[in-house]
Amino acid sequence: MNFRTLDLNLLRVFDVAMTERNVTRAAERLSMTQPAVSNALRRLREATREDLFIAGSTGVTPTPHAIALWPTVRAALGDLRQALEPQAFDPGHDVRTFTLATADANAALTVPRLAEQLQGSAPGVDLRFVPLTSRDPRPLLEHGQADVALGFFPDVGAAVAAAGAESLFQLDLLYDDAYVCVMRREHPLAQKSSISLDEYCAADHLRVSFAGRPRGFVDEALALLGRERRVRITVHQFFTAGAVVHQSDLLTVLPRSFVAATGHAEGLAVRTLPFALPRIDVGLLWHRRHQHDAGQAWLRAAVTSACAAVARESKRGPLVQAGHHPHLSEMADAS
Predict the structure, then answer these.
(1) Helices H / strands E in the chain, number of each
(2) Which partner from 94, 149, 180, 277 sits 20 to 30 angstroms from 85, CA to CA?
C-alpha cells in the first residue's frame, strides 16, 4: 500500500463500519449514502490489497486482517480527534449523549442519583442505559456501543490487572457489596434467625443469570462442598427475582444493597448464606482511548459520585484504591 496516496477519510469509514458491522447503519452515522460507504470500503480494500469484510444477510463480518488492523486505526483516529477537537467540556452548556452498560441492580441504585446530577448541573447531557448480558463488556466498549460499563466483572478485573499498563481497559473499583439469601417473610425458613446448609439445599430456588446459563457461581460454590440445589426458575434480572420470591416459596440470591430497590423490601426476609461467596466488587470499566476526553472524564466522575452515595447508604465505604482487585472470583454468572 502506498500511504502517501491513501485517502485518510477511508479509515474513518472503516472504523464506523467495524463498529456497526452493517453498511446501512454506517452510512447513517457518517451522513453518507450506502453506495458511497460501499465504494469507500472497496477503495480501502484495493489500497490494502486485502479483503476486509464478508457480506452477509444481516450485515458484514470483518476478516482477520480487518480485526488486526482496527485497534491501530481506532487509536490513531482517537489521537487525531483529541489533538484537533476542543478538549474542554462544560456540562452546564455542552450537549452530549453518553451510553452506559449495566445490570438492572446497578441501574436501580445509581440512575436516580445520576438524574439528580443531570437536572441540577448538566441540562444538555443525556444518558442512555443498555442492559448487560455478559460479565465481559469489553466488546461493547471496543466497538463503541457503550462509553462505560458498571458492574461486577471478576474475570475482566483479573485480565486487566494481569495486563497492567499494557491493558486497553481501565477498571476503577467503586464500592463493595455482598450476596445474601432472600425469601418472602412468610417463608418457613424466614422464621429462623439463620439457615443451615442442609435447609438451604433442601429448599426450592430461583437463579439469576444474565446470559441464561444453567449453572451459576452459587451452584459452583455448592459443588465445591459436594452439594447442590434445586433450581426451579432461572431469570435474567434481579428485579424479576425480587418480585417472584416475594410471591412464592423460592429462595434467591441478591446483592444486599439491591434488596431495598426491589420495591418489595417490606415483604422480604434477608439471611446470611450458609456458605462462602466472593465479595461483590462493583467497578467502572472503560477504554483507555478515552483517557484524555474531558466529557468522558466528567461521565466517570458523575458515576463515581453516584456510587459513593450508594456505598454510604449501604454503610459500605467506597474502595479507595482504584484498580485494586482483591478476592476476585473466576465464577462469572450471577447467581
Answers:
(1) 11, 12
(2) 149
Four-point Cα dihedral 141, 145, 148, 149, nearest 10: -80
Q: How many whole angstroms separate alpha carbon 181 and alpha carbon 275?
A: 11
**pTM (2 d.p.):** 0.71
Query: Residue 154: in which H helix or E strand, if any?
Result: helix 154-163
The answer to whether 34 and 23 are in contact (CB under 8 A) is: yes
Measured CA to CA in angstroms, residue 37 lies from 30, 72, 268 at distances of 9, 21, 55
In angstroms, the Cα distances linking 271 to 23, 131, 253, 280, 314 are 52, 28, 10, 17, 16
Indicate left, alpha or beta for 59 from its phi (over 0: left) and psi (-120 to 50: alpha): left
* pLDDT tens readout for residues 297-325: 999 999 999 999 888 877 643 433 333 33
Closest alpha carbon to 144 in 296, 40, 328, 307:
296
The average pLDDT across 3-31 equals 87
